Amino acid sequence: MFAPVYLDHNATTPLAPAVLEAMLPWLSGQFGNPSSRHEYGRAARRAIDEARQQVAAAVGAHPTEVVFTSGGSEANNLFLKRAAACLRPSVLAVSAVEHPCVVKPAEQLVRQGWQLRKLAVDGEGRVDAEAYRCVLQDKPQLLSVMGANNETGVLQDVATLAEAARAGGGWFHSDAVQMLGKLPLSFRELNTAGVHALTVSAHKIGGPKGAAALILDKRVELAPLIAGGGHERGLRSGTENVPAIVGFGVAASLAVARVADCGVQMAALRAQLELGLVALGARIFGAAASRLPNTSYFAMPQLDGETLVGKLDRAGFAVASGAACSSANPEPSHVLAAMGVAPDVARGAVRVSLGRETTAAQIEDFLNVLQATVVGLQQMTAMKLDAA
């Protein structure tokens, strides 16, 4: 079967063999409901408790601060919407480059009386310091700034931003889905700085889809997202997805054990990749900012990103033209728009995100195929212009 080289790890990652092995018993013989009082149920409860401890250890939190959800999108919605439900509507601030699962619920809260402030970013995608200071004068009661952007890989100084917001008394959340497993992550350190909630997800770190967590300071009051039997500290009722949660726990343990080595390996591969990209005339977005070690977001002059992604896929390389969950949207990236990138350039954007299995030989092959593909597309464009 044709299997392109996978270079889209920010969208999702392959399931680690150890994770699959840990999940399999809970998909067959170990089928108990964790809320049941018999041995089948008690075994499932013990498995969830162990996974909660594993996730907590991976992010530097206490197990009681881990609230399991079905995905990062649900965790982000849980924080924003259910914190808002416990507060009098006032000012809500999110960065202009947030994932849609933060931007969309924030926009929905406007219809409930909240005043939304989108934090401007500079040309590299970092929250603009002066614009941030101006927004803090309005004392926002809810703030959300992601740790690492899913498209550009650009890092935000979340601890400094949260510390600056403390005087206003608001709750500060950060989507850290792209950070876990790629960079060291400590909720305790961030919490000390003023971060009250953190989102992480399993399928970005070699775990299964369908499991994520909101790491939540217990001082934050949230209304339940789903009412029912009182699962997950009463915030998210419903029978737990035991196999996925077990897999999440194992994946989190593996990710944190490998983070240092993986970071060095992927940074070296990205340097190799971007050296070749620049030689081909590519513009790399966020290049002057601190970024995830595995992410490169670029555009080739006067070439459409979707077309280039399709050509590369057929040539044996799986890359992305933007965020996987918004790939059906034909509009240019809102992240690049916020960075001041012209729409015609933004439409050419292609994201390569490396993984633990990526090799230097694959990067070299990718650059060779990319060069041939770009030349072919440029020739086609020249022929069309001549014919016109």
Distance between the termini: 41 Å
Derived from helix and strand composition plus strand pairing, the structural class reads alpha/beta
How are the strands of the biggest sheet laid out side by side?
2-8-7-6-5-3-4
- Any idea what the CATH superfamily of the largest domain is called? Type I PLP-dependent aspartate aminotransferase-like (Major domain)
CATH topology type of the largest domain: Aspartate Aminotransferase, domain 2
Helix amount, in percent?
A: 40-55%
Spans where pLDDT lies below 50 across 5 or more residues: none
Reading the helices and strands in chain order gives: EHHEHEHEHEHEHEEHEEHEHHEH
Number of strands: 12
- The CATH architecture classification of the largest domain is 3-Layer(aba) Sandwich
The top-level CATH class of the largest domain is Alpha Beta
How many helices does DSSP assign? 12
Strand residues, percent:
5-15%
Number of domains: 2
Radius of gyration, CA atoms, in whole angstroms? 22 Å
Largest beta-sheet characterization: 7 strands, mixed
Principal-axes shape call: globular
Folded structure, characterized:
The chain is α/β, with parallel strands linked by helices and 388 residues long. The chain folds into 2 domains: 5-12 and 259-387, Aspartate Aminotransferase, domain 1; 17-253, 3-Layer(aba) Sandwich (Aspartate Aminotransferase, domain 2), CATH 3.40.640. 41% of the residues lie in helices and 12% in strands. It has 12 helices and 12 strands. It has helices at residues 17-23, 39-59, 72-84, 100-110, 129-136, 158-165, 187-193, 242-279, 305-314, 334-338, 343-346, 360-387, and strands spanning 5-6, 66-69, 91-95, 115-119, 142-144, 171-175, 197-201, 212-216, 283-284, 295-299, 317-318, 349-353. The strands form 3 sheets. The chain has a 7-stranded mixed sheet, sandwiched between helices. The chain has a 3-stranded antiparallel sheet with strand order 9-10-12. It has a two-stranded parallel sheet with strand order 1-11. Helix 4 (100-110) links the parallel strand 3 and strand 4. Helix 3 packs parallel to helix 4 (100-110). The radius of gyration is 22 Å and the shape is globular. The model has no long low-confidence stretch (mean pLDDT 94).
